[in-house]
Amino acid sequence: MASNGSTRRKTYDAPGTFKPRTSSHATQPPEHSPMDSMASLRLPQVSAKGVSTLNGSSASHRKHSSPMMPSFMVSAPGKVIVYGEHAVVHGKAAIAASISLRSYLLVSFLSKSHRTVTLRFPDVQLEHTWNLDELPWEAFSTPGKKKYYYDLVTSLDPSLLTAIQPHIDAVSPKVPEPMRKIHHRSALAFLYLFLSLSSQKSPPCIYTLRSTIPIGAGLGSSATIAVCLSAALLLQIRALSGPHQDQPPKECELQIERINRWAFVGEMCIHGNPSGVDNTVSSGGKAVLFQRKDYEKPSTVIPLPNFPELPLLLVNTRQSRSTATEVAKVATLKSAHPALLENILDAIGLVTESAYKLLTTPDFDPTSPISLKHLGDLITINHGLLVSLGVSHPKLERIRELIDHTGIGWTKLTGAGGGGCAITILKPQPTAMHSNGSDNGNGTGAGNNHRADSSSEDEDSSEEHDCSASIISTGTKLKHKILDNLEAKLENEGFEKFETTLAGDGVGVLWPAVLHNGNEEEGGEEIDQEKFLRAKGNEGIERLVGVASARKRKVEREVREGWKFWRPWERQP
Ligand SMILES: Nc1ncnc2c1ncn2[C@@H]1O[C@H](COP(=O)(O)OP(=O)(O)OP(=O)(O)O)[C@@H](O)[C@H]1O
Ligand SMILES: C[C@@](O)(CCO)CC(=O)[O-]
Fold first, then answer.
1. 413: Cβ below 6 Å to ligand 2?
2. 27 lies in a domain?
3. What is the pLDDT of residues 490-503, one digit of tens each?
C-alpha cells in the first residue's frame, strides 16, 4: 500500500488543528503529564534510586531535585488483518484488530555522569551504546529541521538520514548481513525518534525491549517497536497526559494520535513505505476499518470500539514470505482475468462490509452466538476467496485442515499469505461432535471428519476416548483437551501456536515500573533490567510484566495492577 503517512483515526483532530497548550518547545511539559499525575494515581513514591517505597509512609520520599527518574515501561500490541487483505490494495475496505501478543519496553535511567544512551534489544541480539554528546543534535535542531512533539511528520528528511548514517553504520559492524539489516532498521527507528523528540540534555538511559510477537510474520512487530519508542520518548519529554481515569475521550484520542504519528515516523524508518495501519491499530488497540480508494489521498480509518475481545488462535507457518511477491501475484492474475478478479475482490469487499455492518449495528451483542457465527462464517468465506486469489500456501491449508478437523472455530490466512500466519476465531462452546457427529459450523462437516479420522488412527483413538470423557464433565475441559491435542499436532509439523485475544488494549504505560499485587502495603514488585532480561520466553515475559496477565491472575486471586491505558471507548464524553 502506498503511504503519505497521514493514516489517522477519523475521529481525531485533523493535523494542525491541535493547539499545543504549551510554548513551542517540544521539551516543555503539557499541563497534565503522567509525572504530574503520579500523586493522583497513588503510585508508589520512588526514591532517588528508582526503588519504590510504601505509599507516602517511607522516609525516602522522591525529592524534586532527584537526579534520576524512576524506570518505567510501555507496551504495544501486534495486529492481524481480520478481513479484507489484498482487496484493500485494490481500494476495498479491510478490518484490522490488535492482538494480545505485545512488545514491552523498559526505560531505565543512569546517573548523569554516564552521557550515554543504550539500546538493548535481546530478541534480535542487538545491543549498542551511543555517546549522547556525539549524536548529530545540530542537524535535528537547525531552523526548518526542528520538529516538535505536536508536528505531523509524513516523510523522512534525507539530510537528517545522512546525518544519522554514520551512527547507524557503527551498529553491529561485524554481524552477518541479514541480521545487521534488522539491527540497522531498529537502530534507525530509535535514533530518528530520539533525535527528533529529545535533546542533548536528555538523561542517560537504557531502552530494553522484549517482544512476544514473532518477527516478520505479518503481525506488525515493527509497528509495536515504533509505538513503544514513540510513547516512551513522548512520556520522557512530558508531551503526554495520562492515562488517567477522568480523562475525557477526546483527550484520550489526542494522546493516542500523538503517539501514533511519531510511531509512523519509526515505521517509515523500518519499512520505508508503510500503510500506517499497523501503527494505528497498535497505538489505539481494538480494531479499525481502513480503506484507501485514492492513493493520492490519506486512507480512511474508522475505529471499531465494539469489536469483541474474542479468543483467537494464531498459528505461524514459519514459512517466510514476501508481501510484495504476494501482492504482485494478485496483480498478475488480475491482468489475466480482469472481470473474474474484480468479482472476487468485490466479494472480499462485501465480506468486510458485512462484518462492519454487524459491528456497528446499534444493538450489536458481542456475546451472542449468532453474531459470533456471522463473524466466523465471514472468516471462512474470506479464506476461500483468498485461496482463489492464489495467495494461500500448502502449509496454511494444512493448518486450516488440522483445525477444521477439531471443529473448534473458523480459520483463515491473515496478511499477505504465501506463508505467515493463520488465525482462528474460536467458537464459544465446543461442538458436540463426538456425541452426535454434528457439523462444525464451517459447513465442512469437520465434526464428522474428526470422528472418522481419529478412529482410523491408533494414536487418535485414545485421544478421542479422553475427549469423550471430558465432554461429560464440562465443555471448557473438552475445549482445552482439543486445544492441547491440536497443539501437539501443530508442533509436530513444525508450526508455532499462540493463544491470544483479539481487539484488546492499545499502547499502555507502567509508570513507574512497579507491578502491584493488590496489597498496597507490600509495595509492589519493581521491574528492573535484570529481571526483565532473565524472563524466559513469552511465558516468562507475560508472567513478569504482561498486561494481559492481570485478568488471568484475578481468576487466581493474585491481582497485579499497574498498567494504564488510554481507552476512549470506555470513557463518558
Ligand atoms: N523484537 C524485536 N526487537 C527488535 N527489533 C524488532 C523486533 N521486532 C521487530 N523489530 C524490527 O522490525 C523489523 C521487522 O519488520 P517486518 O516488517 O519484517 O516484520 P513485521 O513488522 O513483524 O511484519 P509485517 O510488517 O509483515 O506485519 C525488524 O527488522 C526489526 O528492525
Ligand atoms: C496483502 C496486504 O493487503 C496485507 C499485508 O499485511 C498488503 C497491504 O495491505 O499493504
1. no
2. yes
3. 999 999 999 999 99
Q: What is the mean pLDDT of residues 275-304?
A: 90
Whole-number Å distance, alpha carbon 225 to ligand 1 midpoint, is 8
Quote the CA–CA distance of 58 and 41 in Å, as a whole number. 18
Between residues 18 and 461, the one the model is more confident about:
461
- Structural domain includes residue 521: no
Q: Are 78 and 85 in contact (CB under 8 A)?
A: no
Q: Which grid coordinates are listed for 27?
A: 521539551
Ligand minimally distant from the alpha carbon of residue 85: 2
63: pLDDT strictly greater than 50: no
| CA nearest neighbour of 427 among 461, 460, 404 | 404
Could you tell me if 251 and 348 lie in one domain?
no
Q: Are 276 and 338 contained in the same domain? A: no
The CATH number covering residue 376 comes to 3.30.70.890
Is 570 domain-assigned?
no
262/150 Cα distance (integer angstroms): 9
> Considering the chain, what is the average pLDDT of its residues?
81
Number of domains making up the chain:
2
What residue type is assigned to position 42 of the chain? R
Say how many Å lie between the CA of residue 469 and the centre of ligand 1: 44
Ligand with smallest separation from the Cα of 187? 1
Whole-number Å distance between alpha carbons of 13 and 256 = 11
Q: Does residue 192 sit in the same domain as residue 237?
A: yes
User: pTM (2 decimals)?
Assistant: 0.82
Same domain, 117 and 23: yes
Q: Are 210 and 119 in contact (CB under 8 A)?
A: no
Q: Is 123 a catalytic residue?
A: no
Q: Percent of the chain having pLDDT more than 70?
A: 76
Nearest partner of 567 among 251, 308, 264, judged by Cα:
251
Q: How far apart are CA 291 and CA 91, in angstroms?
A: 6
Q: Let me know how long the chain is.
A: 573
- Mean pLDDT highest for which of 29-43, 430-444, 527-541? 527-541
- The answer to whether residue 350 sits within a structural domain is yes
| Res 510 pLDDT > 60 | yes
Catalytic residue among 151, 278, 404, 460: 278
Residues 287 and 317 in one domain: no
Contact 422, 410 (CB under 8 A): no
Q: Are residues 251 and 313 in the same domain?
A: no
**Alpha carbon distances (Å) from 89 to 219, 345, 556:** 18, 10, 45
Residue ranges making up the domain that contains 192? 8-54+75-300
Q: What is the pLDDT of residue 171?
A: 98
Comparing CA positions, the residue from 503, 509, 474, 522 lying closest to residue 569 is 503
Residue 104 shares a structural domain with residue 123? yes
Q: What is the pLDDT of residue 11?
A: 28
Ligand 1 pocket, CB under 6 A: 121, 123-124, 182, 185-186, 209, 211, 215-222, 225, 270-271, 278, 323
DSSP 275: -
CA torsion through residues 18, 23, 29, 31, sign: negative
* Predicted complex: ipTM over 0.90: yes
List the CATH number of the domain containing 44.
3.30.230.10
User: What pLDDT sits at residue 21?
Assistant: 28
Least confident stretch, 57-66, 72-81, 258-267, 337-346: 57-66
Q: Is 354 found in the same domain as 407?
A: yes
- Cite the DSSP H helix spans in 26-107: none
